Amino acid sequence: MAWAGRAGTRLRDGAWRIALAAVTATAAWVLAQLLLGQPAPIFAPIAAVVCLTDDPGVRGRRALRLLGGVCVGVAVGEIATRITGSGWLQVGLAVAAGMLVVALGSISSLTLLQAGIAALLVVGLASPQTGWTRLLSAVIGGVLALLVSQVLASPSPVRLLLAAARDALQGPASALGEVAEALRSGSASRAQDAVETVRGGQDALATFLDTSGTAGSLAASTVRGRRERARVSALRRRLAGIEYVHASTVLLARTAVEVLSAGASVPAHLTGGVEELAAAVRALAADPGATDPDADDPDGPRPTHEIADELAATRPGGLADRDAQLAAQLHQLALDVSALVDPAPART
Q: Quick check: 69 and 102 in contact, CB under 8 A?
C-alpha cells in the first residue's frame, strides 16, 4: 500500500507535465506535416517531448541545446558527405566530428547526443535532404516547445515557491508541537518522535531548495516569471532560512530528549516558549506568503514576529545546565523563525 501511495503521488506530480508534452507533440506533428509536407515528421514531436519533460526552469535552455546540437550535426554531416562520401567508417568519423565540435563550446549530454544523431543520419543515409528535413522538423518542435514553455503554459514561480515552502514548514511545525507535548508530559520518547518527524521532512526541504532555484530561473526566462520577478526575489530572500528552521528544530528536539531522559523538570516558561514558537511556525506554514501572519497563541492571536522576537530576546542565564541548553536552542530557533518574517536579523 505504501508503494501504491508513492506511485500515485509521482503520477499526480507528473500528470500535468505528461499531458503538456503529449499535446505539444501532437501539435508539432501536425504543424510539421502542414509546413514541410512530410507524411511522418517524427523529429518534430521528439524535439517537443525532449524539451518539455524537464523541470519548468530548464525547458528553455534544453530546447536551445537541442536545436544547437541538431544544427551542428547536420552541418558536419553535410560537409562529411560532400568530402568523403558515405560508409561505415565515414559514419563513425562524422559522429565523432559532430560531437567534438559541440564539445568545444558545451559538454551538455543533450547537445552532444543530438549532434551525433544528426550527423549519423545525414552520412548514414547518404541523403542531404534527410539532414535538412530533420533539422527543420526539430526546429518546429523546439520552437513550439519554447512557445509553450516560456509563454503559453509557463507556471507561476510565486505559486510554486509558496507551495514548496508550505510543505517544507509542515515538518518543523508538527515537530515543535510534539516537543511541547513531550515537555509537558515529561516523555523522552515523545521528544524522540519529534526528532523523527522533522527528519522525515527532509525530502520536502530538498524540494523547496530545488523549487527556489526553479522559481529564480522562471522569473528570469519566462514572460509570466518576469511579471512576478520582484515578488519572487523578495520571497526567495525571506524564505531562504527555512533550512535553518529545520536544523534548529532538530537540535531543539534532541536537546529535549537529553533533558527528559535525565529526568529533569523543565521550567514552565520554556515549555510555554516552545508552544508559542510552534504556533508561530504553524502560522507561517499555513501562509508562507504573508510577511507577518497571526499565530494562534494561547493568549489570543499574535503577530508571528512578536512571538519570535520575544523568545529571541530571552537568555539562558540562571538556569541549570541542561535547561540552559534547551533555552539556548529555543533562542536560536526563535532567531531563525524571526528571519522568515523579517530578514533583517541575520543569522550569526
A: yes
